[in-house]
Amino acid sequence: MTWQVQPLPTRGPLFEGAIAVYAEAFAEPPYSDPDRGKEIRKRLRDVHSLRRGFRAFVAIEDGKHVVGMTYGYCGAPGQWWHDTVAAELPRASAWAWLSRSYELVELAVEPRCQGQGIGSALIECLLHGREEDTCVLSTRTDSRAHHLYQRLGFEIVTTMRFVRDGAAFYIMGKRLTAGRE
Ligand SMILES: CC(C)(COP(=O)(O)OP(=O)(O)OC[C@H]1O[C@@H](n2cnc3c(N)ncnc32)[C@H](O)[C@@H]1OP(=O)(O)O)[C@@H](O)C(=O)NCCC(=O)NCCS
Fold first, then answer.
1. Section 124-134 average pLDDT
2. Is the peptide bond before 30 cis (omega within 30 degrees of 0)?
3. Distances in Å between the alpha carbon of 60 and those of 21, 39, 55, 71?
4. pTM of this prediction?
């Protein structure tokens, strides 16, 4: 299988392909959420793509078929995820991890294509040349995704629930300043 990474437009066949891959990946355990694909289309296009630093990529197989997607933007006060995580952390830790942060918001690879390096390549493209101090994200503790993030230099900042009695998530962060000082 040959694949390549390229920027994701916010309309057209590549965009629809990315939404389909996202829906498929999150329909699998532990997320098992078939509706997640419906929610992301509008949020990505109408809210997230307008945020500062928005960047999105797809991995494409054989020049046309989307097999992976990712996007992110700069974290800022007033954003739900940013404020919810900041409230959970001691003040110094919130400052260190979130004050100049880039958020890896979504990452998904088509289930039949997982484990071949596509997720890693998408993250590398997303973070290439970013000038923020940190990259931050959340991932369910019962998913295997944190192995990938740890391999790429992320550490666990804390464990928390976004919803009472809901799933537990690792908040993970990577310092992007290495080699810059
Ligand atoms: C997490 C995900 C994007 C990884 O993509 P990928 O292309 O399989 O990633 P890579 O091949 O670059 O790396 C594989 C790593 O991911 C981890 N992983 C997570 N789920 C995996 C799966 N279903 N199959 C294989 N590896 C998986 C492995 O532990 C592996 O880590 P290792 O290489 O250190 O052993 C993909 O598994 C996925 O879409 N999962 C469902 C959605 C999800 O969890 N998204 C992230 C939410 S924060």
1. 97
2. yes
3. 11, 23, 17, 15
4. 0.95
Q: Is 116 in the pocket of ligand 1 (CB under 6 A)?
A: yes
Asked if the model's pLDDT at residue 120 lies above 90, the reply is: yes
Ligand 1 contact via 32 beta carbon (within 6 Å): no
CATH (residue range 3-175): 3.40.630.30
Token pair belonging to 26: 């999150």
CA of 89 to the centre of ligand 1 (A): 27
Ligand 1 centroid distance, CA of 99 (Å): 28
Residue 73: active-site member: no
| Higher-scoring residue by pLDDT: 152, 34 | 152
Q: Is the CB–ligand 1 distance for residue 9 below 6 Å?
A: no
**Residue 30 Cβ < 6 Å to ligand 1:** no
Which of 60-64, 77-81, 115-119, 145-149 shows the lowest per-residue confidence on average (mean pLDDT)? 60-64
- Ligand 1 pocket test, candidate residues 109, 125, 171, 174, most atoms within 8 A of CB: 109
